[in-house]
Amino acid sequence: MKKFYFLILLAVGVGFTASAQQKKPITVKIQTPGMQCDECKKRVEDYLKYEEGVTKVVAWPKSKYVSVTYLADRTNIENIKTAIANVGYDADDVKADEEAYKKLPKTCKRPEDGGHKKGAGF
User: Fold this and answer.
1) If DSSP states are collapsed to H, E and C, what string results for 68-91?
2) Whole-number pLDDT of residue 87
3) In a domain, 2, yes or no
4) I want to staple 53 with a disulfide (CB 3.0 to 4.6 A). Which of 16, 33, 57, 75 is the partner?
5) Residue 113: its pLDDT value, please?
6) 19 φ, ψ to 5°?
7) CATH code: domain of residue 78
8) Domains: count for the chain
9) Residue 121, domain member (yes or no)
10) Cα–Cα distance between 25 and 108 in angstroms, integer?
11) Residue 121 in this model has a pLDDT that exceeds 50
12) Which helix (H) or strand (E) holds 54?
């Protein structure tokens, strides 16, 4: 009977140890100066949902940033910035992938490329 109680205590102890080792999620803000409208917002949020380790994404086109919550043991901020660049938007110091940028609809491009103009619907 003592062995039975010992095994139960051991199993509970292992369970607490395993849960204590999980890292807390990290939330960062990434500047995305090219993101301008709800279509841009949807594109970035939808793409980042599938990035491993990302638990929450909220894009703010008017403020030009993306708030990303992620698990540090599964990804890092550089991977997230690269993912945003792969959608076609600049992300802090990481420039947008040119091929992805070319595929963006005209409304989601930079004003100098014929995209949204300042004062156009904002």
Assistant:
1) EEECCCCCCHHHHHHHHHHHCCCE
2) 96
3) no
4) 75
5) 79
6) -75, -30
7) 3.30.70.100
8) 1
9) no
10) 30
11) no
12) strand 54-60
